[in-house]
Design brief:
CATH superfamily: Ferritin, core subunit, four-helix bundle
CATH topology: Ferritin
Low-confidence stretches: none
Strand content: under 5%
CATH architecture: Up-down Bundle
Largest sheet: none
Mean pLDDT: 91
Number of domains: 1
Order of helices and strands: HHHHHH
Helix content: over 70%
Number of strands: 0
Number of helices: 6
Bound molecules: fe (ii) ion
Length: 166
């Protein structure tokens, strides 16, 4: 079993965890996009997918540059959130409930990523890894924007309006 002796190890593990979580989202989300009814929701998801692919490539690069071999475990957490949503979706929900479940899934994923990046940035700053911290701060901003966007789709009744007028 790998040991986490210090903050340096913890930083490495967290980088791998977030990278694994991103990979999980990239592999699962296209099928969910195909399931969404609201045009605005589909657009938000597609846009998010493009951004997370970019983030994942950058994380991969950092991990390779730093020669990190940690295994990571975060995939299970994101897998759980996605599985829960897929279970709910399979219960024959109406188009509105279907899309609300998808939007809720995103809110949970983004919240999870926001916590992860917040922690990583703190850790990177503490270790004097300012280049990493700066890059992760950009990711964090992206996550916050995505969270607000999905929240606004629910708050502004965008999803229901889309479905009613489709
Ligand atoms: Fe995200």
């Amino acid at each position: 079993m790998e040991t986490l002796a210090d903050y340096e190890d913890l930083l490495s593990k967290q980088l791998v965890d977030l990278n694994e979580a991103a990979k999980e989202i990239i592999s699962e989300v296209p099928r969910i996009i195909a399931n969404a009814n609201s045009q605005s929701l589909r657009e938000a998801m597609t846009d998010h997918l493009i951004r997370i692919k970019r983030q994942q490539m950058m994380l991969d690069l950092i991990i390779r540059e730093r020669n990190i071999h940690s295994k990571g475990s975060e995939r299970k957490a994101i897998k759980g959130i996605i599985e829960d949503a897929k279970n709910a979706l399979s219960k024959g929900a109406s188009p509105l409930i279907n899309d609300t479940i998808i939007a809720m899934m995103y809110l949970k994923i983004e919240q999870h990523e926001i916590s992860g990046y917040n922690f990583l940035i703190k850790l990177a700053n503490q270790l004097g890894e300012y280049e990493i911290s700066e890059l992760l701060s950009k990711f964090l901003n992206d996550e916050k924007k995505t969270h607000s966007l999905f929240m606004s789709l629910i708050d502004n009744d965008t999803i229901s309006t889309d479905i009613e007028t489709a």
